[in-house]
Design the sequence.
């Protein structure tokens, strides 16, 4: 065995070593000289030397176009085996070109993004590829951003009231055609209530000089951004001065007692007045409806939901329930709704009350914007206003047309 090993590795070892080295040299030479062709997709294209007032539709601020291309590349097999689109970039020169031209892409347009990739040595040929380039006028416009109703759930113990302002603007710069389309369509901005924690609202509440049942969550700057992939690879921050006051309003209190009785009346539609009118039908009194000083009122404890304590305090004496009279041929059960008397006056009272309050969170907002915000909040309260029973259930009335009376009772009462 020892003799066999010596004959294999020791005898004539100089010749054997030379043979191994020669074989390696030949193998390396063959590997380096072997070329293959590979199709690489999703290669980015960058435009340079555009005139100052020109751009290309879909070009981002870093010069990269939104369109990526596929190239057929021939080169060293070892390099080709590992080559991906992340290693390459195509650069086209727009200097002196017309508004529309054809960029003929070849090897000279390739640049390496990988430190170990030497294009001049490792790539021998790139199949010709023609790309139509259309330059556009570079314009700057203010794009409307509509702030929509948030999604998600409000933190436990809080109720979403409103978001304000409803409309903002963001300044963008880009190709004239794309910017015009964007301006006509506009953008939307939607927040998720689930991103707001109860602890955050509690901190805001505790920081007030005089705690109220309303809490305004001022939207952080990181949320005031819109994505425009056709114009920028990064989010664009909304630069509208009004965005400083962008907030989401919450209420801590769900049911608010409405002290006192609420008047109830009947509306007789003119089209049915020949048979339905105050002389033929009257509103019946019972345990639920009583007559006080000639006025029929609901004799039942009621609560408001979806509003603030201040709103309820201001409007509570100016609410009435209206029953809409229909013949039985039209409806078996009559409709009703709660109405506010002289709502414009109530709105003015609400706005004046808060704007004179030193505890108002909107003091840093311009007076006219502050007033607009408060008026929007009041109108939102009117739209959200609902009557509830002490059992925390929405008030449902059973209203029927009898022989010569209209009876009203709370359902399941």
Sequence:
């Amino acid at each position: 065995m020892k003799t066999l090993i010596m004959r294999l590795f020791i005898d004539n070892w100089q010749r054997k070593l030379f043979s191994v080295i020669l074989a390696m040299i030949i193998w390396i030479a063959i590997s380096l000289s072997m070329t293959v062709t590979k199709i690489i997709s999703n290669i980015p294209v960058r435009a340079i030397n555009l005139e100052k007032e020109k751009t290309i539709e879909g070009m981002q601020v870093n010069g990269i176009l939104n369109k990526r291309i596929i190239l057929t590349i021939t080169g060293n097999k070892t390099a080709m085996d590992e080559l991906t689109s992340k290693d390459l970039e195509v650069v086209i020169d727009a200097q002196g070109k017309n508004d529309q031209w054809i960029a003929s892409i070849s090897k000279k347009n390739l640049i390496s993004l990988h430190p170990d990739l030497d294009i001049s040595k490792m790539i021998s040929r790139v199949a010709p590829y023609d790309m139509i380039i259309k330059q556009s006028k570079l314009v700057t416009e203010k794009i409307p951003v509509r702030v929509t109703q948030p999604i998600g759930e409000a933190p436990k113990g809080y109720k979403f009231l409103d978001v304000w302002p409803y409309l903002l603007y963001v300044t963008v710069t880009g190709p004239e055609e794309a910017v015009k389309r964007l301006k006509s369509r506009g953008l939307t901005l939607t927040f998720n209530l689930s991103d707001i924690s109860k602890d955050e609202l509690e901190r805001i509440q505790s920081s007030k000089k005089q705690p109220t049942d309303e809490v305004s969550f001022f939207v952080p700057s990181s949320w005031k951004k819109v994505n425009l992939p056709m114009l920028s690879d990064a989010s664009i921050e909304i630069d509208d001065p009004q965005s400083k006051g962008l907030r989401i309003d919450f209420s801590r209190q769900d049911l608010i007692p409405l002290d006192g009785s609420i008047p109830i009346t009947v509306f007789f539609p003119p089209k049915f007045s020949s048979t339905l009118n105050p002389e033929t039908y009257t509103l019946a009194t019972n345990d639920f409806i009583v007559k006080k000083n000639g006025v029929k009122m609901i004799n039942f404890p009621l609560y408001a939901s979806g509003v603030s304590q201040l709103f309820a305090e201001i409007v509570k004496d100016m609410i009435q329930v209206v029953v809409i009279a229909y013949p039985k041929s039209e409806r078996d059960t009559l409709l009703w709704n709660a109405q506010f008397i002289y709502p414009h006056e109530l709105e003015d009272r609400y706005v004046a009350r808060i704007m004179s309050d030193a505890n108002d969170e909107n003091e840093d907002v311009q007076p006219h914007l502050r007033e607009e915000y408060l008026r929007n909040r009041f109108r939102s309260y009117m739209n959200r206003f609902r009557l509830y029973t002490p059992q925390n259930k929405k008030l449902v009335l059973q209203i029927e047309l009898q022989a010569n009376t209209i009876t009203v009772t709370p359902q399941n009462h």
Observations:
- Residues 139-251 form one domain.
- The CA atoms of residues 2 and 8 lie 10 Å apart.
- The first strand starts at residue 35 and ends at 43.
